[in-house]
Task: structure prediction
Amino acid sequence: MTAPRPTVLERWNPTVKLATVLLVSTAALLVTDPVTPATGWLLTVAALLALGRVPVRTLALAHVPFVVFATSLLVVNVVTRPGGDPVTLGPLTVGADGLAIGAALALRTLFVGSLSLVLVLTTDPVRLMTSLHQHARLPATWTFAVLAAHRLLVELPDAWHTIRCAQAVRDPRRRRGRLPRSPRSLGAAAFALLVGAVRRSERLTVALESRGLGSGPRTTSRPVPLGVPDVVAAGAVLALAGALVAVGMVAGWVTGIGALTA
Amino acid sequence: MAERADPRVPDAVTADGVTVTLGHHGTRVLDGVDVTVPAGTSLLVLGPSGCGKSTLLRALVGVVPHTLPGAVAGGLRVTGIDPRDVPPPALAARVGLVQQRPGDQLCLARVDEELRFALENRGADPRTMDGRATAALAAVGAEHLHDRATHTLSGGEAQRVALAAALVAEPDLVVLDEPTALLDPAAAHEVGALVAGLARTPGPDGEGSPARAPHRSVVLVEHRLDDLGALPGATLVLGREGRVLAHGPTDRVLRERARDLAGLGCWLPLAVRLEQAGAPGPLGSCAADAWLVDLAHSVPARPAPPDRRPAALRARGLAVHRGGLRAGRARRPARPVVRDVDLDVRAGEVLAVVGPNGGGKSTLLRGLAGLDRTTGEVATATGDPVAMVFQDPEHQLVARTVREEVAWSARLARLADVEGRVARTLDAFGLAHRADASPYRLSGGEQRRLSLATATVLDPPVLLADEPTFGLDRAQAAAVARVLRERADAGGAVVLVSHDLSLVAAVADRVAVVVDGALVTVAEPSTVLADDALCALAGLRRPPLLEWWARTGRGRGVDPGALVRALDTACDAACDAACDTAPDTAPDAVASVGGAGAPAPGVPVPAEVSL
Result:
């Protein structure tokens, strides 16, 4: 198994990456025009494709939940926010204000969503947790408990399926190849899953302790480097974001959160 | 820290009147346990289900009372430390733990991360970690697994990695809780052999041995004694009340207390069972061979059910696809997990399904039950649905009480006399006294009986059972085997997935071998068990009794099923006779066999009789 060379985004220190993404996401909440988040979104997607070498298909699929949420935001704002010049969209006539705000909020969703994908798609969980322990001073008991819980989560779908099968087989009137979907059967399966998860997490806790987690000062065999390039990259991203807003202010399209209540 | 006479090497374990209560209600699980494990020796802990074996191990590693609620009273020292005084992670620097379930003790995503994790937590020098991790994997024969994702490991591989992760920090004591319980016979034998070789004492001059941790001691709970390469030197037997029944050198404890152990329902190694049944010598001697042949001939071989019996369940071209949430997301349909299965399960037979871990046995069973996505044809003769018992009884629970649990299917089937039927079923499975208890509060053996009761309350034409004896002691496993056989004898069809080849030989009429998703063969047990190439292919390692049969007994016309049943019957008869004359399994009759706490280290007792 030869792993491909890690990409620029993968090499970026996870803690710095997390901080940068959080900072930019928070800043994006203060802007309510459509152009700024649209530009940010396009830049992020370009970075994911070019610097993260994320396959287009993966990126598109990962966008699905954000697109759904963005669309609903757009529709709600168009329908409920009157005002502005009437705009004709085919058979519909809507207010320009609602359209502008709705589009801005929808694009902001996509922008923040794609920023979160930078974290999710290009960060190795163990590296993130090691770095958070190393650089953000998070306790190791905390970070590794999260990793172990992550392993438990990965296997929950299989356990869920086994339990659904195990309970379905007891119904003498079941139909072949169908698992029951009644709320009662789902509730019973969820309860069994919960009991199983509690018992498993108990065993995992014992396993974590038996590996000596939390016994005192620990060392790190694969320290995550934190160097000048990591900080420079963060600075560059923040400068770019600042420049984007500055250009918008000069050109006059940037609006703040005041526009929401105007 | 109070040190013993030799301050350099304290005993691995000294327990002096240790009493353990568990939970917030303070249920007493262990009562006044005295035991000593000198450094460099191993201790085997035996006892019936629910006698507190696991609790003893948990007290040793400090999980009780630190992680799980409970209290430990009495004098307890583990490698010279009182486990109540230090948190479990600190004690873990000296005590390694291997648990029963392979999947639930690997914490990280990759094998090498898991091993380095154990070293990092102890503050080891990062420059030495890779070397130590590689050495620990090599010690358990798992070097090739170093870059594998932990969730893709088979049960046997995962148990090796867990053992390596316990050994990598050079613990003074390794504590193992049924490490082979979930493994197929071949993997169980390999892991068992590793476990048997764990204990060590330093060489006379210490030359070449590492500077630290020259002693390594072992405390082991294990049922599959015939799979251990050598039995630990000392044995502790716990009775039902969590009291010590016997403690001493393994050889003497097993021989002198064999009847008590059998009476408690413990598994025993073959050599001891033969002696108990009255064999004139060890297996392989002429007298013993002749005696065993006669014994097997005294039990009639089960008449082969006529081939013309109707098929109760018929599968043609059956392929079973992986179920679950992820299955639907695959871009193209993945290769089915089980494919091209043509199988008739006849009325009145027990069909055993055997094969390696991960080979598709459980998936085949789900396919026969029509649960996963299947293609091809599978149907019962009558059109009635089949019943199935899953590996984990808790997965099948849907109701609040045992009574409701049994009534559940009967109500759905709109039967007339639900109450009467439920009462009869509860009686038949010995659950009437627990009828109003929560099914989650039953013991392991009771839960298994409950799952069999719920599966058979409708009297289904076909019963599928996935590892129904897993986690049970010998008496409970024998009861399950009896239930399955009785169903078949009453005209039902039973399909049984099991790793226990003795069970398969004893109850099955035919054996289906499933390897890598394909049905390799369906034949009589004697044909399958005699085929060395097939056994190697399917990870079927014959237990010693069946190994004797394949080498010696078969040539003398012995049937393997008759052999296993005959020895079981002879042992039970010997035990009953003893229990009638001397009912001394009461705690008062406890004797420390041989007096001495433990035998000299480094004298392994053979678990297998060489042939």
Summary: Residues 1-5, 205-213, 325-332, 582-611 of chain B have pLDDT under 50 and may be disordered.
